[in-house]
Amino acid sequence: MAFNDDSFIREVNEELRSDQMKGVWRRFGRYIIVVAILIVAGTAGKVLYDYWDDNRSSGTGDQFLAAMKLADENKNDEALAALDKLEKEGHGAYPVLARMRAATVQVQKGDTAAAIAAFNEIGKDNAVPAAVRDAAKMRAGWLLIENGSYEQVSAAIEEMAVPGNAFRHSAREALGLAAYKAGNMAQARQWFQSIIDDTDSPRNVANRAHMMLDLITASGKAPAAQG
């Protein structure tokens, strides 16, 4: 499925207008999460690129690019071995970059539990730059939507869902989706409303928040927001 955020939202809204509420989340929930993860991954990628760009080391850099090529070719075990070596022997930014990439390779392998554990470990490591720690926490939080509880998602990322944090929009969306998945419609409504109330929220994120609020209202499981 090729994702076009606006057309995807229109399709879901057509489902809502047709009153075919049963199964809407079952049909679209995974895609909503995937679309949002693509944005999170892009933001995290920008953070990691900036970190890499400030800490270039040509020899280790070639090794890192070679490990990434292995991962892109789905040679996951070989990629993990190369990244593990970089984590232990690399210079500059590369040990941290190797840890982040290795966690992503674990996702590719289907070992989501190992990936979550790895991202959580990076997120708690005070030796890692704050921006990279936040990126790791966000990756863990999004993986936990499908593979954990609302409480686990909250523990991972709620601290970032505050004004001024660069990841606040993604954190609020993840928390809203986790609350919705858990059946806590009132909490979900609060998180999605906080996205809409933030004038700096990206348009696509705000559009998805509106869509989710429509879904919650149509479900009849949460009171409408008071204006």
Automatic annotation (TrEMBL):
Annotated compartments: Cell membrane
Record's keyword annotation contains Translocase: no
Pfam families linked to this entry: TPR_21
Chain ranges passing through the membrane: 28-49
Topology of the protein relative to the lipid bilayer: Single-pass type II membrane protein
UniProt domain Ancillary SecYEG translocon subunit/Cell division coordinator CpoB TPR: residue ranges: 23-202
Keywords: Cell membrane, Chaperone, Membrane, Transmembrane, Transmembrane helix
Domain of life: Bacteria
PANTHER family (UniProt xref): ANCILLARY SECYEG TRANSLOCON SUBUNIT, UPF0070 PROTEIN YFGM
Annotated family: Belongs to the YfgM family.
Protein name: Ancillary SecYEG translocon subunit
Species for this entry: Rhizobium brockwellii
